[in-house]
Amino acid sequence: MQNFSQKSDIGILFMGGLTLDYELLTSIKNFYTNIYLETEEKHILACIEKYQPKVIVTTYQHKEVIYDDVIHIVKLSEPDINIIMLVNETSCGSMKKILSLDCDTYLYIDERKEIIIKKILYALRNAQERLDSSKNEEYYNALLESSIVSKSDPNGIITYVNENFVKVTGYSKEECYGKNHSILRHPSNPKQMYEVMWKVIKSGQVWRDRVLNKNKDGSDFWAETTIIPYKDKKSGKIIEYIAIRRDITAMLQMKRKIMKQESEAKEQHKIAEAKDSFLILFTHELKTPLNAIINFTKYLLNHVSKETINKIPLSKREYLLEQILGSAQMMLTDVTNILDISRIKSHKLSYTYSSFSVKNTINEVIKNHASLAEENGVTVSFTDDGSEPFITSDEKRYQQILANVLSNAIKYSCGQVKINLTKINNSVQVIIEDNGEGVEDKESIFELFEQSGKGLLKKEQKGTGIGLNFVKLLCQDLKFEYMVEDSKNLGGLKFILIKDLKVNK
Q1: Whole-angstrom Cα distance, residue 1 to residue 23?
Q2: 416-424 and 379-384 beta bridge pairing
Q3: What domains, with CATH codes, occur in the chain?
């Protein structure tokens, strides 16, 4: 059995079914400190990039997952990783494919557990010895030959390229010699990157980075690039640079594919969740005014005969009809908002510009929300600075902006909403603030289906989550400036809407 005076710190990645073998892993951890366990392909590549293990111990297959693609990628992108492949009798049918992977070590493991552990520890010791031997010149040259290698003089003129350089880039040796490395320069790379590179290597230090290169045929390839300056032993002057590149294009492409799939899956899940949440919230919002319409209408119908209708005071009849009208308008507003959001996003929403009184528009919006304010027990007060400002815009859309903000303020307030109109120099400013609990994330409330509470489906949520998104889109189209702040006067939320009178329609 392996006998270390202290634990080794080389990283070892165990893949597949080995991650479930507690006895084996416990024995390995007696000798090695950095042990990583992964089973899924996407996580394996991420683990290799993050922790850079020196040894991989794996089986060819775990359940339905076959690791040949991952091993091929690792062999291409991380040639210095030692791969120990464990095989047993059930692997015989795939032995041709397993051998084609060209792993560093193959172990047959159809034996007692203690013998298997000894074999693995012995293979790990040999792997570590091979890693340690990388310091000698023979291994160093072999490493160079397996990479994309070039040499240049102190001015960056290419003096040598190996066969891998020719194979990957498409340039022949004759086309490279006497040329600058700029033949590989990709236009996407920033100029500053090369300035930093030259500054580093001219100072005699090693430079490393992940660089996008361009081949002779115009195709791209990503390479982990290391440039090493070599100095004359006597003079100390730099006599040449050696550039060692490892092609990681395949690994990055696979990572991007996996990330894209995960992103698309999350997006689809988010869309499905938003649809479900919207249906629940929207039907709830329609239910409240619809109940009011039905109940008030039933009341009037029950007293429709001339004898009984006259017994109801005229003021009460007017109140009931106003409530019915107000509730119907609320329902219409929600439906209209949804349709208008669709139109505005497809640039099909039309605008009719005119000059109108801001004060009259605010009073009209307050009047239309009287029933909602009464239902929620909220007092809405309106003050101004005595000016009578007129603006040129779409009055209907301006009302929609104010209506959506006021509706939210009423629903989330604790009994008080204040509206203030002020004309400051060349701008008209409307402030709507409430004494509710406020909002932590003031940006997200303007996104579709977002609300000021903690979750879309919580009982404390109010509103469909579409009103403020519509406000945002309308303000952008009509050139209104808007912002949300904490209300210092009432302790809740303050919405500020500003129209610059100098901005042409």
Answers
A1: 16
A2: parallel
A3: 12-135 (3.40.50.2300), 140-247 (3.30.450.20), 331-500 (3.30.565.10)
* Farthest CA pair distance, the chain: 121
Report the SS3 class of residue 168.
helix
Residue 41 CB partners (closer than 8 Å, separation 6+): 65, 67, 69, 70, 258
Q: How far, in whole angstroms, is CA 370 from its chain's centroid?
A: 42
CA torsion sign, 440 to 444 to 450 to 451?
Answer: positive
Nearest to 161 by CA among 244, 236, 237, 78: 244
pLDDT in single tens digits along all 505 residues of the chain: 334 446 788 899 999 888 888 899 999 999 999 999 998 888 899 999 999 999 999 999 888 889 999 999 998 988 889 999 999 888 888 888 999 999 999 998 887 888 889 999 999 988 888 777 655 556 566 666 678 888 999 998 999 998 889 988 999 999 999 998 888 889 888 889 999 999 999 999 999 998 888 889 988 888 889 999 999 888 889 999 989 888 887 777 787 788 888 888 887 877 677 666 555 556 656 666 777 777 778 777 777 676 677 777 888 878 878 778 777 777 777 677 666 666 666 666 778 899 999 999 999 999 988 888 888 899 999 999 999 999 999 998 899 899 989 988 998 899 999 999 999 888 999 999 999 888 877 777 777 555 444 333 333 444 445 678 778 888 888 899 998 988 888 888 999 999 988 754 4
Q: What angle do CA 45, 50, 54 make, to 5 degrees?
A: 80
| Residues sharing a CB contact under 8 Å with residue 255, sequence separation 6 or more, in sequence order | 42, 45, 46, 49
Residue reference for tokens 């701008």 = 427
Report the number of secondary-structure helices (H) and strands (E) in the chain: 16, 19
Residue environment code for 282-312, b if the CB has 16+ CB neighbours within 10 A, otherwise e:
beebbeebeebbeebeeeeeebeeeeeeeee
